[in-house]
Specification:
It is a single chain. This protein is α/β, with parallel strands linked by helices. About 40% of the residues lie in helices and about 20% in strands. Helix 4 (about 85-90) links the parallel strand 4 (about 75-80) and strand 5 (about 95-100). It is elongated and about 60 Å long.
């Protein structure tokens, strides 16, 4: 799933991004309400984690503006925890409300609940928590991948990398994007961590099969797509 986290506390925002990445989520960050609203309206997210107290545009105002355009599930995350405040947040269009401090496992569970609600009318692939491309299937719930009915034995990073590529299939992702989203690191042209991981993933994903799904666009990055019928 692709998640937008709108949080002005930088350490907490990074903590959430790292934790959600490790759970297989693709995460974008915004540190104020105006930036968050722009991303929320311009991009498609499975859910938004939204702090209530934000600079520029507070969380309630951002939520109100968002709800006039989109129904993306929103989990309010805030230190303001009175009953009145929670009720106000829910009435403003939040799907759930989690008070700081919180357990990360609870946040993940709540995100899974509100995204299931949000996809009640979505296609069967989304409803079952599975992503597919050609004969490749990734089960996001069980964190398993298979191709042509054969299980792919992947490391945690390989699974996260495959999930990111599959969620954005057909889109060329640069090494910088992959380094940031999968390894939470600024891209260093002197490191080959991305290339090594891609090579290992390709060995498991493509080598044993008739046609390749993972392609290299020279000088640009990598893309996952089925070109067998082109």
């Amino acid at each position: 799933m692709k998640i937008l986290v709108v949080e002005d506390e930088l350490k907490l925002a990074e903590y959430l991004r790292k934790g959600l990445n490790s759970e297989g989520f693709v995460v974008d960050l915004a540190h104020d309400g105006l930036e968050g609203l722009h991303l929320a309206l311009e991009c498609d997210y499975d859910a938004i984690v939204l702090d209530r107290m934000l600079p520029g545009l507070d969380g309630m105002a951002m939520l109100s503006a968002l709800r006039s355009k989109k129904t993306t599930p929103v989990l309010m995350l805030t230190a303001v925890g009175s009953v009145e405040d929670r009720v106000a947040g829910l009435k403003s269009g939040a799907d759930d409300y989690l008070v700081k401090p919180f357990a990360f496992s609870e946040l993940v569970a709540r995100l899974q609940v509100i995204t299931r609600r949000g996809t009640a009318t979505a296609d069967q692939t989304t409803q079952t928590g599975k992503l597919r491309l050609s004969d490749l299937e990734v089960d996001l719930v069980r964190r398993r991948a298979s191709r042509g009915g054969q299980a792919l034995v992947l490391t945690a990073k390989e699974f996260t990398l495959l999930t990111l590529l599959l969620r954005r299939q057909g889109e060329v992702l640069s090494r910088a994007v992959l380094a940031d989203q999968v390894w939470d690191m600024n891209f260093d042209s002197g490191t080959n961590v991305v290339e090594v991981a891609i090579r290992r993933l390709r060995t498991k994903l493509d080598v044993p099969f008739e046609h390749s799904l993972l392609h290299t666009e020279r000088g640009m990055g990598y893309v996952l797509e089925d070109r067998s019928t082109l």
